[in-house]
Amino acid sequence: MELSVEAGPARQGHANAPFWLTPAAYWMPAHFPTSAWWTHGAFAAWIVDAVRPSVVVELGTHFGYSCFAFAEAAKRLGLRTTINALDTWEGDHHAGFYGEEVFEYVDGVARSDYPESVRLVRGRFDESRSLFPDRSVDLLHIDGRHGYEDVLADFSEWRSAVRPGGVVLFHDIAEKGNGFGVWRLWDEVATHGRSFAFSHGHGLGVLSIGEPTTPSLRALFEADAATADRIRADFGRLGDVAARQAWLLTLPRELDQLRAEVQSRASHEEQQEVELDAQRKHIQAMTDSSSWRITAPLRAMARRCPRGRASSESGIPPVP
């Protein structure tokens, strides 16, 4: 009987397990920073196990979830892999713009957990292309700007860097609104026997450059419709587990932020009450003063007399 996701980790590696449910597919990433890539963590470990890359290049890293997922899988597999994470760490109109704290977080995790495998390359993708010889990259992950012209430029410029039999991953192939155009490029490059598409997690396209070189990759790309549906369903469920784990890990931070916001609002309201009380005391002090009592008849007269008449009778010309 074939292994399903529901059977759980206890039966990982069973002789009758389908090729895509390897032990690596059940591994959890060690870091869960904010990411639209959360549900692809299981596949990240699987593809690293299948390709056994020496060189990984990632175009677009942001908080580093996918980079760290690749690095963690390589670490657990004992591979001598270098993950080159390329980004400006400034943001764009899709990811939003942000400050230096994002780069500092990614750099901190890379230095502490993956000092020998993760290399951060800061700058524009086209400026960094010359750092990588043709046919030197085993796994290329494209996740930068998501407009059609942008992703086309990235793929056109970096395709020659990937060795024959290497793999290119395209994130966001299922997004068709808000100016996203990765789906359009995917429709142009996806080829039967050399590509596979996931629809969950905003979509992830897997493309072989030339003929696949490992049995597991060939099986993935040549899967019939029924098998492909099972692969998508299983990685979708594994992705949901990772997303729930991420949510649980980020929940304390969200609760702390909520508490801080409530505390800030309470402090603001308390300050407003203090200021209001001070104003009340100031008014009370004025009304209790001798000068306020002495001038009471004058204020009463002013209220009874029209402004122009009172001024005229007093000999002072009325204000126009």
UniProtKB/TrEMBL annotation:
Pfam families: Methyltransf_24. One of its GO terms (biological process) is DIM/DIP cell wall layer assembly. Keywords: Methyltransferase, Transferase. The keyword Transferase applies. InterPro entries: SAM-dependent_MTases_sf (IPR029063). GO terms for molecular function: methyltransferase activity. It comes from the Bacteria. GO terms for cellular component: plasma membrane. PANTHER family: RHAMNOSYL O-METHYLTRANSFERASE. This is Methyltransferase family protein.
